[in-house]
Structure formats: C-alpha cells, structure tokens
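Bench log, entry 3. Co-assembly request; chain sequences pasted below exactly as received.
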Amino acid sequence: MNRIALAAALVILAAVPWWVSGTYYVNIASQILLYAIFALGVNVLAGYAGLVSLGHAGLFGIAAYAAGKILSTGSGHGHVVVAIGAIAVALLASAVFAVLALRGTGLGFVMITVALGQIVWGVAYRWISLTNGDNGITITGRPSPFGFSLASPRSFYWATFVVFLAAVVSMAVFVGSPFGASLRGTRDQPRRMTALGYHVWMIRFLAFLFSGFWSGVAGLLYLYYNQFVSPQAVALTASAEALLMVISGGTATLLGPIVGATLVVVIKNVASAYIERWNFVLGAIFVVIVVFMPEGLVPGVARLTRRAVAALRPHAAVPVPAPGVAAGGEPVRGPSPPLNGSERGR
Amino acid sequence: MSALAVQNLEKSFGGLRVTAAVNLAVEPGERRLIIGPNGAGKTTLFNLITGELRPDGGSITLFDRDISRVPSRRRAHLGISRTYQIITLFQGETLLRNVMLSLLGLSHLRWNPLVRIERQEALIVHAREVLARVALDHLAERPVGETAYGERRRVEIAMALAQNPRVLLLDEPFAGLSIEERRDVLRLVTSIPRDVTIVMIEHDMDVALDFAERITVLHFGAVVVEGTRGEVVAHPRTREIYLGE
Amino acid sequence: MSLWLVLAVNSITLGGLLFLLSAGFSLIFGLMKIPNLTHGSFFMLGAYFATSLIARGFDFWTAAVLSGLLVAAFGGIVERLILRRLPGAELAQVLVTLGLSFMVADVCLMVWTGDPIRVDTPSGLRGATALAGVAFPRYRLAISVIAVICAAALWTLLDRTRLGAMIRAGVDDAPMARVVGIRVPQLFTIVFCLGAWLAGFAGVIGGPILSVYPGLDQEMLPLALVVVILGGSGSLLGSLVGSFIVGFLYNFGQAMFPELAYVVLFLPMLIVLVVRPQGLFARPAG
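Structure output for the full assembly:
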C-alpha cells in the first residue's frame, strides 16, 4: 500500500508539466521539488537521527552562494565545476557544523545550530565585499547539461525532477540500509548503542554529511531556479521553514517531508495570492501541528482517518493502531522524535 | 588469569564517593553475584566496567588486558556485554530487529549504507536463532511495545547474548518479574555455557542465591564481604547490613 | 578618542536595554526550561503598543508600564493555553514559540503597517548632560539607570521575597519544589508574565533609540539568546554581565569589523555552547 502510494505520487509528479496549466504553476512545482529535497535532507537528522537543526539554511545557502560566487567571477568555469565546487563547500560546512553541534545534545544541539546559521547569515549580510550583502548575487542564465537548456520552466522542472528522484532513491536506500538502522538506533537508545559497539558520534557525523550534501544540492537548484541568492536564503526563518516542512509532513516517513514541502510552498506562493497574511498562517500551522499533531500531517491524518473509520463501524472492536504502519512512504521504523512529551534518554 | 578484574577502582560524584577502592577478580566461567543495599554503587560498578563512566582511579582488566583506557564502544568488541536494570530496548522495532541491531554492533556491515538490511539472510537467521535461545522466536515479528514485561526482560538478555560475550553483566535481570517468569529467566541464565563468565547484580535473594557461586557484597561503594555463597550468607557483616538497618 | 567614548556609551546603553530584555528570557529559561523564541516579539509588541498609547495622549512612562502589562497579559495567555500543554517538551516549545513569533510579527505588520515609527524621547531627558567635561545624551544615561534599578528590584525580589525564594527553588530543582508544596504551575505563569512584562517594557524604553519597525523582533531575539548563553540561564548576575558584554561586542564589532559584525557576536556564543554548555555563570547542571 505504501509503495503504491509513493509510486503513484512519483508518476503524477513526473507528468506535472502536462497536466498543470501555466508556467506559474510549473514553477511552483519546481520549487516544491527543490524544497522537498531540502526537507528530506533536514529529515535525515531530525527524523532519523533525532537531531533537530535550526541552522540548515546555512548549508543550503552556502552552496547557493558558493555557486553564485564561482559563476559571477566570470572565470568561465563550466557548470559541472560549479556544481562540484558548491557541493564541496556545503560538505565542508556540514563537517564544521557537525563537529561543533555534536558537542551538544537535544536543546544544546539546536542552539549551536542556531548560532552557526546566524554566523553564516551574518557573513552573507555584512561581508559585503564577499557576498554583496543585501543585494545578493545574481547569475545570468541556467546551465545546459548535455546540451539541454534549462532556461524554460518545463525543462528546469524535469531536471529538478530527475535530481529529486535521485534524492528519494538515495534516501530510501539509506533508510533501508544497516547504516540507516544504526542511525535510528542512536536516536532511540544512544547509551545502549555505545554498549553494543557502535560509534555513535561517527554515525551522527556521517549522517550530518549526508544531510548537508542534499541540503547543498537543493541550494544549488535554488540558485539556478531564482538565478539569484540573498541573505534571506540563510536567515533563521528559512531554517525554521525547512523544519516546518519536515515536522508538518511527519518525520518518520519518506513521504512526510515531501508533503510538508508541498504544503509550505503552496501556502507561501499560491495561497498568499488569496490570503494576505502568509507568515501568520505559517506560524499558526506550526503551532497547531506541534500541539495537536506532533507526529506530523502524514501519520496524524492517517491516525485520525483510522479513528474515523473505526468510529463508523460501531460493532467492530476498535483496533489498536499497529505501530508499524504509516500512510504513504515506507513503514514507520521507530518513533518520530517525541514532540509532545519529555525527551527520552538523550 | 581472571576473566574480569578490577583494581582499586574509584569514582566520586561531587563529594559522594560512589566507588571506593573496589577490588574484584572473577574467574573464567564463574557465576558471581553482586549484592548490596540501594545506593551501594552496584550499577555504577557496571557502568565503570563497560566504560560508560570514567573512573577517577584504579584499573580494569579483561583476561589480563588492561581496558581502562579503551573507549566504551570498543569494549563490546572485546567481549563484554550487559543488560540494563531499566529496559532499554528499541521500542518501535520488532524483537527481531532489536536482536539484529545487537548483532550488527559487532559487524562491519553496520557501516554499510547501500545494501538492504532486509536482505541480509545470514543476519536474520542468526537473529532468529538468538531469539530461539530465549524462547521468543514465535514473537520475532512483534513490536517491543506489544510484548509483556517478562518477555522484554528476556529480550534484554537476548541482546547481550547475541554478541557472544566472554563476560556477561546482568543488571537486576529478575526485577519486576512474576514467580513464573523468574523461573524462566533463571533457567535461561543457568543454561548459559561455561565459556561465558557471568556477573549479576540482584536484589531478589531467593533466585539469585540459587545462581551464585561466589558473592561480593558492596556497601557505600566498598567491598565489605566476599566469598562463596555459604561464607557470605553466614557472615555477620552481611546480616548486619541486611537486617541491622 | 571621542569615537570610542561614544561607542562605549552606546554599548552601556545597549547593555542596559539587553538586560531588561534578557533578564526575562533568562528567568523563563532557567525556571521553566522553555526557550522562549517569542521573546523578541514581546519586545517589539511592547514598543508598538506604546506608540499607540502615546498617540492617544498617554505620557511616555505610563505608556511604558501599561504596554508592559499588555504584553504580560498576552504572555500569560500564551503560557496558559499553549505552553502548559507541552511540559518538558523543549523541542515543541522551541517550535511553538517560533511559530507564535511569526504570527505576532504579521499581526503587527497588519496593525501598524511596515513603516518605522519614531518614538520621541520623553521630555526632561532630551539633550545632553555634561559629566567630567564630556557631553552624554541624557536619555542614554537614563536607560542605564533604569536597568540598574530594575536589576536591583529583581534581585530584591529573588533574594528577599517568598516569591523569589520559590522561583529560586524552582530554578534549582523544579520536581523537588513541587514536592515541597510550591504551586509550580502558578509560579510558571507568574514568571512568564514577569518576563514578558520586562521584555515589553524594554521595547518601549528602547523606542527612542531604536524606533519600532518590522524585523525588530528578529534583531533583538538573537541578542537575548547570546546574552543568556553567555551568562547562563536563571542567573541574574549572568544576565547583567552578559548584557554588557554583548552590548560592547555588538557596538565595537560593528565599528571595528563591519564585515564580521555578526560573527563577532555569535562566535563567543558558539564557543561557550561548545566548551561550557551551561554558560559562564550558572552552576553546573546536576
């Protein structure tokens, strides 16, 4: 059931430029996908490692800025070099973030990532000779890999979709692997994992690099999409939005961050045409989800649906929801980080 | 050569001396019981042996190898396994997955991000065997959250046994169990072969005395009585500690 | 020479303002273990409320106190209705307070529009005073005095009153405080409101210097965070010292290393978090 839902979703996504009318909506779809990649990256840590970062926009943006810098110096580097350079910078930054942030656990980890994100933002905002400050960096034109120009919304969408597919596949492989199981183990019982012979710090560090890699990839796509990057991209609100995508969709599944990204991007772009107060809505969603559906939309809706269905069958015994199932994506492996109760054994 | 030995081990928290110059030597294959009133420092001793806590002084040797400086995560690889007083299983996972995680801890496979864990036949079969040893293979697919307390206690032991330890540390394995369950666990523990040295912390005297060959009594962090079961039970100091308070 | 003096005065002023802002944050975090990311919003809200009150004819100081009360009321509602549902869930509290800050910011934008609003320096404190032959702006001196008065008042509250004893007990060991009979939920609400009042009051006091504008909350919150991280949570002395350190770092940093202004600010916070997570002043945990 879960596999079919995911496959169906992917097919629908692939065909978007055909059934969606207007370049505006195709562009929205591209945004959804690139932010979904970002959200999946953030979820590697938030969902599977139990480490919540409020500084990931720093990694996202540092890749965008690195690419922008390389391109705008006009040294004529091909886009492949640019991409490699940008991702390399993102990985280096991830390593630095990881070494520092992993000194703390729980709230300490969050605070350190906030500080790191703010430092990146401060450099973007104030080191004007490097980053052009508030004016940001503009690039001219999108790349043309293998001769296909990505200038049009359609072709950019498909290129983004291919990268998105790669991200989803790599996530699925990662999650289903022994390393993925180890990572989830460190989330649930770090003490025991050490006693069982696992190198908990190293596992978390490598997960951070994996998370930073995809955040950087998303940042690169962001730069090519907008052909512009500014300090806005690395602000605290940007990290908060990424976290909102992850949490609103649900951290325990692959589909969760994707749904969350869709929700946030749609509200931000489309709904804001009808609703004036986008930030208010964003904040309100945050509050409502954290208080009422801490496990996220995907599992939360699944749970509520089960309840509703059970309630409609008055004579059947109410089934205890099997804790191994979530709608969409792969089966829940382990609990999402407990939001609505006290943290366990960190 | 002793299997596990501890020399002059010291640990203090602030002003509180939790482990006070403890000396201990457990012979290979021995069944050692550690008892003492609450706060005597028994679990702290285990935490020092597994490396979770760093001692303030003294040393720990495993089959004559000094492991005092060995990081905690390496000690499992050297043959030390433990269970916990409070059940620390992976709640959201099945029993099978729990044991698989335990087996993976010692395998290079744990670093592999590319293969599917579901396809690791050898690992899965091995995990089932371990569960069978504790008579829980019929519940292999059951999530931990849906098992009974007594079953979880046995999974705790399975997790430790899975790693084929040379030294097994059991921290209050009978805590909270019914009489039936206690008998099951005792049978399980006594069936463990002699190539595993067992050190057990227990409060429940009835069951533990059946198990013990030698007993070490801790009080306020120090060893106060040590000897065979008979010696310790008869010792006036033991009586004083348990009855005189 | 006089540039350094000006910077120093501005730093002390900012330090005083930050103390008012972060004392509340520190108390809330120290007692309730809640990282209240809405605190910057309290500051901004207080300032906005005051502009409306002043426009209606209230004098500056009355407006300051009243705005504080309005913000405190709002804080009380937030604590009672939302934060109380999430006891001990630090992550949830971070996210909820962050979400609330987004909501407050947008409402302020709606009500007071996006244009910066100037707050006039209260009459009587305009102009400069000569001290030791140098002219200091009167209002900036006043802010430092106000900060010191509030610090003294808070210290008296914490050290000399029963309420203060309960707060300190709660900061040290909340479960134990409960056992001893302290009504912890009510205490939490009181402290949260107190913290909110301080923040709102600070917003008004800062008005003549900073003005009020959208984004003020996002600018002040990180500063409060740095202060509390440096000074330790729940420590009044720590907040005081931390505030002045940050005031100096911010002003001198901007002047001497304009390109690395925020790095100068957040690097110490980062260093402290990484090396000594409990801050420079707080008692080590456990």
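Residues 87-164 of chain B form one domain. Chain B touches chain A at residues 50, 52, 72-77, 81-82, 84, 88-94, 97, 100-102, 104-106, 109-118, 120, 143, 145-146, 159, 163 (CB under 8 Å).
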